[in-house]
């Protein structure tokens, strides 16, 4: 009897001690989850800032590219006039002017390819931003307990 009483007392003590440890474990789990959420939010913000800086750089490059294209266009118009004999070509011969013309065309094509690359990069950035927003929206939807969601919420979550 004495052993049974000691055993039951010790087991009830263990149960009592295990309950506070469970709440301690639960608190630790909650803290850990909050820390992970905070780190995730920081990473998302950092990714958004990277995309923003990249988008700004692309925009600046596009503006510079536009200026260079305008300058080439002006030079091309002047060169065409000289080739047709409408403007004074000075000491340039026709072969030299044709050479300059072909170099101008090659430079213009190069700039157009570069512009296409920049536009593709800009489109990629837009798609990455859209994906990030959808992921965030999905995380928010999934954080809500399924029992609290109605049919429309579930459909929207599936669609995302």
Automatic annotation (TrEMBL):
User: Which stretches make up the BMERB domain?
Assistant: 45-160
Read off the Pfam families from this record: bMERB_dom (PF12130)
Q: Compositional bias (Basic residues) at which positions?
A: 22-31
Locations of Polar residues compositional bias? Answer: 1-11
Q: Output the InterPro entries linked to this UniProt entry.
A: bMERB_dom (IPR022735), F-actin_Monoox_Mical (IPR050540)
Q: Where is this region: Disordered?
A: 1-31
What is the designated name of this protein?
Answer: MICLK protein
Q: Native species of this protein?
A: Sinosuthora webbiana
Gene for this protein?
Micalcl
């Amino acid at each position: 009897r004495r052993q049974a009483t000691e055993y039951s007392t010790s087991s009830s003590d263990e149960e009592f001690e295990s309950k506070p440890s469970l709440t301690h474990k639960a608190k630790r789990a909650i803290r850990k989850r909050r820390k992970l959420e905070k780190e995730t939010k920081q990473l998302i913000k950092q990714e958004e800032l990277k995309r923003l800086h990249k988008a700004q750089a692309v925009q600046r490059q596009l503006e510079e590219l536009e200026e260079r294209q305008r300058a080439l266009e002006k030079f091309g118009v002047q060169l065409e006039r000289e080739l047709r004999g409408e403007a004074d070509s000075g000491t340039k011969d026709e072969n030299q002017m044709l050479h300059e013309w072909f170099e101008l065309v090659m430079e213009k094509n190069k700039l157009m390819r570069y512009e296409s690359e920049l536009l593709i990069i800009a489109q990629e950035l837009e798609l990455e931003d859209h994906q990030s927003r959808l992921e965030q929206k999905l995380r928010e939807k999934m954080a809500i307990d399924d029992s609290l969601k109605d049919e429309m919420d579930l459909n929207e979550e599936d669609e995302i």
